[in-house]
Specification:
Layout: E1 2-4, H1 6-13, H2 21-41, H3 45-50, H4 54-77, E2 80-86, E3 89-92, E4 94-96, E5 100-111, E6 114-123, E7 126-127, E8 130-133, E9 145-154, E10 161-171, E11 178-196, E12 199-203, E13 210-211, E14 219-220, E15 232-234, E16 236-237, E17 239-246, E18 253-263, E19 285-286, E20 292-293, E21 311-312, E22 315-322, E23 325-332, E24 335-336, E25 343-353, E26 358-367, E27 373-383, E28 388-391, E29 398-399, H5 400-403, E30 405-413, E31 431-440, E32 446-447, E33 474-480, E34 506-517, E35 520-521, E36 529-539
Parallel strand pairs: 3-11, 15-26, 15-35, 29-36
Antiparallel strand pairs: 1-8, 2-5, 4-5, 5-9, 6-7, 6-10, 8-9, 10-11, 11-12, 11-17, 12-13, 12-14, 16-24, 17-21, 18-19, 18-20, 18-25, 22-23, 25-26, 27-28, 27-30, 30-33, 31-32, 31-34, 34-36
Length: 542
């Protein structure tokens, strides 16, 4: 695909033309014939002609006939055909998933002395810079075309409105090119969902990681990575994109809505409906507060256009006053996805124009509105006599000498989004991490563990997945409290370094459990979170 600018167009128009030997030969023959006729008329042949000499008249007739034939051949063979059939009238853009939006130019560019042709596009008499793709590539059309495909004019960067297509057909050798023009109205119908909660729909077309919402296989991801290719979402979220249909006479945006359907079977995501197809029955629920209806002429003010560059699609109407007049204005908001629940869903954006045509774009999403569990259930100590872990009573003081190591038992757990999709992989299984920290009274937080990437308790080998209770709590960490021994207090006394305590002293310590998943909740990339705190008194009796 070549991008033809005004400079490149001049280079194409001014490129050297091939020497037309056949045309030169015709000129030479024509001149010779004319000279022979003149010689015949002024060399005594006039007397023979006046005496009705049959042979002389035949010779003259043949010469004149040859002159006429050569002139006709020169004119016919130098004739160029130039005709534009499409685009014409109200012309919607077509979509090339990897290259952009375009209009197809159909018509004829041919003739016996055809050399090449070029296409251009004007608006208001001014040439527009556009990418033009010719059959076979290159900066011009090199083969004759009769009532067929002349090329594509890519219009992604052009605004809607009235345009003029210019077709210029060039001959071999000398001679003027033939130019034909046709006007049309460009209808830009750009309907897509590009981002959810600020996360782009990434595609493998034309290259991995390319933000390409027009690819129906695109998925919402921060990056395309084998470790974590997709993201899940919960809570309130915006959806960015475009619902832009402007404008031909009697044809522009009328309304748009986003509907959603629950995908209960792995691989059962619905396909994107074709242009003008009815909304499938599976999409029975609508993203609130949509639909957005354009009801009056004032709703079509320029500031109420949604697109073509991505902006928030979740809108309702409000009003504002300008120079004493009140106008409708878009009110950007978000969708509370808790009403939809959790699972694999397909989002369908449908825009309708005033002529009744329907435009669709589909985007698949994982919704996670499960609550995450983070709880310290109990503490245990290891009884060396019985070689078992025993529960510590509530409010029990911990002795370094007797208890030594403390087992922290609890829950750090997040549900699988949809256990119908088994075995669970990201983002269906989107557990993030948990960690434990502690601090001495008036001290700073210290790591009791690093980030642990496995849930407690673990998932079962097969469904069903039951939300664990305190009875299913498991080991979060084992804490060696003798590490807090600060030794004998110095004389003169100074406080023990944080978080230590001297022999014969005691202090209150607070344990903090933090649990998170990898969902994006209300635009916060930290996901669902849970905290729990427990305080204990530790005695250094070593």
């Amino acid at each position: 695909m070549e991008k033809e600018t005004s400079v490149e167009r001049k280079l194409v128009e001014n490129k050297p033309r091939r020497f037309d030997l056949a045309h030169l030969i015709k000129w030479i023959v024509l001149i010779i014939l004319v000279v022979l006729v003149i010689i015949q008329l002024y060399s005594g042949e006039m007397h023979k002609l006046s005496r009705a000499d049959t042979f002389s008249w035949i010779i003259l007739f043949i010469k004149l006939l040859l002159i006429v034939v050569i002139i006709i051949l020169m004119r016919v063979q130098r004739c160029l055909k130039c005709k534009i059939i499409e685009p014409d009238g109200c012309t919607p853009e077509l979509s090339d998933m990897s290259k952009g939006l375009y209009v197809e130019v159909k018509g004829s560019a041919s003739g016996s002395y055809f050399s090449h042709y070029t296409l251009g596009i004007n608006m208001g008499g001014s040439p527009q810079t556009a990418t033009i793709e010719y059959p076979g590539g290159g900066g011009s059309g090199s083969s004759p075309v009769v009532n067929g495909h002349l090329g594509k004019i890519f219009t992604t960067s052009l605004m809607d409105g009235a345009y003029e297509v210019v077709l210029t057909v060039y001959p071999y050798g000398s001679g003027s090119p033939k130019i034909c023009k046709k006007t049309f109205t460009l209808l830009k119908a750009i309907v897509y969902i590009s981002r959810v909660a600020g996360v782009s729909a990434l595609s493998n077309v034309p290259a991995p990681g390319n933000p390409n919402p027009f690819d129906t296989d695109a998925e919402l991801a921060l990056e395309i990575s084998p470790d974590y290719p997709k993201r899940s979402f919960g809570g309130h979220m915006t959806m960015d994109g475009s619902a832009y249909i402007y404008e031909c006479p009697g044809r522009k945006i009328k309304n748009y809505a986003i509907r959603y359907a629950h995908v209960t079977v792995p691989g059962g995501e619905p396909s994107q409906p074709a242009f003008d197809a009815a909304v499938p029955a599976a999409f029975g629920d609508m993203v609130s507060p949509l639909p957005l209806e354009y009801l009056t002429a004032d709703h079509y003010q320029p500031w109420n256009r949604v697109g073509p560059a991505p902006i928030n699609l979740i809108n309702s109407w409000k009003s504002f006053t300008l120079f004493g007049n009140t106008y409708p204005k878009l009110k950007s908001t978000s969708w509370n996805s808790n009403a939809a629940g959790s699972g694999r869903y397909s989002l369908l954006l449908t825009a309708e124009d005033t002529a009744g045509h329907l435009y669709h774009d589909i985007q698949h999403i994982w919704l996670d509105n499960h609550n995450i569990k983070g709880k310290i259930v109990k503490l245990q100590w290891f009884n060396k006599k019985s070689s078992t872990w025993e529960d510590l009573p509530v409010c029990k003081d911990l002795s370094m000498k007797k208890h030594e190591k403390i087992r922290i038992v609890g829950l750090a757990w997040d549900a699988v989004i949809d256990e119908s999709w088994w075995p669970p992989v990201a983002p269906n299984d989107n557990f993030g991490l948990y960690n434990l920290k502690f601090h001495k009274q008036f001290g700073s937080w210290k790591d009791l563990t690093l980030d642990v990437l496995t849930r407690v308790p673990a998932l079962p080998a097969t469904p069903p997945v039951i939300v664990p209770t305190d009875a299913e709590a498991g080991e979060l960490a084992v804490w060696d409290i003798t590490d807090l021994d600060g030794g004998t207090a110095p004389d003169p006394y100074v406080p023990a370094p944080d978080p230590l305590i001297y022999s014969g002293e005691s202090c209150t310590y607070t344990i903090r459990l933090y649990v998170k998943d990898n969902s994006i909740v209300s635009h916060d990339h930290d996901g669902h979170e849970a905290w729990d705190f427990e305080s204990v008194k530790i005695i250094n009796d070593l």
